[in-house]
Amino acid sequence: MREFAWIEKLAGLFGRQAAGAPVGIGDDCAVLDGAAPTLVSIDTVVEGVHFDRGIMSPADIGWRALAVALSDLAACGADPRRSIQALVSLQWPPDWNDDAMAELAAGLRDCASAHGCAIVGGDTVSTPGPLALTLTVIGGAARPVLRRGARVGDAVVVTGPLGASGVGLAALRAGLADDDARACGAAYRRPRAQLADGARLAALASAMIDISDGLLQDLGHLCEASGVGADVDLDLAPIDEATRGAAAKLGLDPVAVAAGAGDDYQLLATVAPRDLAELRRTLPHATVIGATRPGAGVAATRAGRPYEPPQRGYEHGT
Amino acid sequence: MREFAWIEKLAGLFGRQAAGAPVGIGDDCAVLDGAAPTLVSIDTVVEGVHFDRGIMSPADIGWRALAVALSDLAACGADPRRSIQALVSLQWPPDWNDDAMAELAAGLRDCASAHGCAIVGGDTVSTPGPLALTLTVIGGAARPVLRRGARVGDAVVVTGPLGASGVGLAALRAGLADDDARACGAAYRRPRAQLADGARLAALASAMIDISDGLLQDLGHLCEASGVGADVDLDLAPIDEATRGAAAKLGLDPVAVAAGAGDDYQLLATVAPRDLAELRRTLPHATVIGATRPGAGVAATRAGRPYEPPQRGYEHGT
Fold first, then answer.
1. ipTM for the complex shown
2. What is the rounded CA–CA span in Å between residue B11 and residue B6?
């Protein structure tokens, strides 16, 4: 069975909403009752599945694992002025030495500092298998924004450039190391969770998700949860110059990468038309790339024609 | 480097206490600030390290992983009347099929129900390595009880029988299946977190820990955190008839198993002498097995003579 089918099955088994948890399984975070809603999310990364030690330093691995988890808090509109905490569970393989562990821990610490997050607990276990890290992150929001909530006619908005991480991964694998490639490689190795943008969008967005698996796939999740469809004009997708430059050298189509490669950890939100003026004021760097419509599914166009990228995103078990 | 050395090192690196977390790394749970203190703990189990599919069904694996995590909440005195929530991250290996996943999930669900816990979120990823589960559990306590806090002259108390799980593991490995062995095997495969006892002890205990690694080793952790030593009379350690019976058939010394095998998930607490009468009233099944003293370290006796079991507990990386 594939990942998303399993999430559905488990949500059914465990109950989609539970006592003390106004939002349960299936969104970026679970929302727990309290004086103010508490957001909590868990994320595991495994060597050989999510990262490759050949192109990531131990510090990169630590940084990225935490940033990816924090991105789920951003996607729910966590307020960076409230405490943000993380717990880390490390599974270390037989060939993992103390220096590498110390570097990995330094990467975790640096990422935590950069995001105003405190690492408050954890667990370390040995494994005969690959290196793996599980991060649990906890934050708070006055008004959590979920995947559900988009209405027909809302604008589809992204918070920043797409494709840099996907092109960066290809550049790292190819050993391309000019300025453009290095910038893209850094986007892949050291992503940032968009906590500040997420908090600003929390006041405006009808629904939100982070772009982890791929733009079209993640928009599909948001649309499915909201019961709407969406049309996206990929010519509007923001792609920076370094990404275009490195993609050209690698023979990649940057728009295809932006549409399907994932790992950008920008936020994808839907915003009602009446709130677009306020969006432009508070998030001038946000870009409208499409709109929701009745029905289901996500349709993409380029130059006014239907377009299907080679992949829409990543799913485990496929 | 070994597990406990790493925990020390990571605690130093990440900061032992952080903003919004009155208790940080190194106790059974992290304690987060809020209207009432929030307890949170993370625990990973890995096939081939923490469990063996040869003697555990997938449902057992799921049950045990969650119970072990919930035991950390019990050890901090979590109040079962408050919400208790869990998030689960599953790493599934290539040979793991849908039936096994469904059984494992059912074991998680049954354990959650048995403990009044709601599973509110999670993550599933594929791995080329062994099956692994990470559980994050969240609870609340009016007054969290920590490993630190024991004073010289406190009684050392355990909440229930010891050694059943260690003997049960040996019985499962040996294929012994009479009534005694089955009872011990169930203690190993389906432990229970002592949430009710932990909540009662929260009003009385000066310090508390759960017995996961081994009685003497876990008491050592409590003593070290509290800056005291302790003497334990192992003749007083509660060991039930089934454990003695199965141990005899296996040629095991049940007292040695009770002292060092761990996995019992009973609670180990220190209680001031003035509170012992109240302890006997509210926890009549609790047993005093020793007392704290000045200095450091844990000394055990049997029949009045110093005794050192073959092992004091389990540590990863040793």
1. 0.83
2. 8
- Residue of B6, B34, B87 lying closest to A42 (CB–CB): B87
Instruction: Provide the phi-psi class of A175: left if phi over 0, else alpha when psi is between -120 and 50, else beta.
Output: left
Segment holding B61, helix H or strand E: helix B58-75
Assign residue B265 a region (left: φ > 0; alpha: ψ between -120 and 50; beta: otherwise).
left
B316 pLDDT above the threshold of 50: no
DSSP secondary structure letter of residue B196: H
In-domain check, residue B15? yes
Mean pLDDT for A101-110 is: 91
Q: What six digits make up the tokens of A138?
A: 């906890």
Residue A93 has what DSSP assignment? Answer: -
Calpha distance A306→A304 (Å, rounded): 7
Residue A12's Cβ-count burial label (10 Å; 0-12, 13-18, 19+) is exposed
Give me the amino acid identity at B307. Y
Closest residue on chain B to A122 (Cα): B42
Segment B88-132, tens digit of pLDDT:
999 989 888 888 888 999 999 999 999 999 888 888 888 999 999
Give A131-141 pLDDT, tens digit per residue.
999 999 999 88
Distance from CA of B109 to the nearest CA of A (A): 6
Q: How confident is the model at residue A190, as a pLDDT?
A: 97
- How many folded domains does chain A comprise? 2
Beta-carbon neighbour count of residue A205 at 10 Å? 28
For residue A246 the two structure tokens come to 């490195």
**Closest by Cβ to B24, choosing from A13, A42, A121:** A121
Q: Is residue A148 part of a domain?
A: no
CATH number at residue A232: 3.90.650.10
CB B159 within 8 A of CB B197: yes
pTM, to two decimals: 0.87
> What is the domain extent for residue A243?
155-306
B303 touches chain A (CB under 8 A): no
- List of chain B residues whose C-beta atoms are within 8 Å of the C-beta of residue A42: 87-89, 121-123, 134, 136
Domain boundary among B82, B106, B140: B140
Residues of chain B numbered 119-138 and touching chain A (CB < 8 Å): 119-130, 132, 134, 136, 138
For residues B136 and B209, membership in a common domain is answered with no
Residues of A in contact with B88 (CB under 8 A): 42
How many Cβ atoms are within 10 Å of B13's Cβ, its own excluded?
15
Q: Which of A140, A166, A198 is the last residue of a domain?
A: A140
We report the CATH number of the domain holding residue B92 as: 3.30.1330.10
User: What residue type is assigned to position B303 of the chain?
Assistant: A
pLDDT bracket for residue A312 (50, 70, 90): confident
Domain presence at residue A149: no
Report, as an integer, the average pLDDT of A73-79: 94
* The amino acid at A159: T
**A126, A166: one domain:** no
Q: Which spans in chain A are helix H?
A: 3-14, 58-75, 98-114, 164-174, 179-189, 195-202, 215-226, 241-250, 254-260, 276-282
**CA-CA distance, B121 to B112, in Å (whole number)?**
13
Here the tokens at position B280 are 């006997």
Q: Is a pLDDT exceeding 80 seen at residue B302?
A: yes
Region at A158 (left for phi over 0; alpha for psi -120 to 50; beta for the rest) = beta
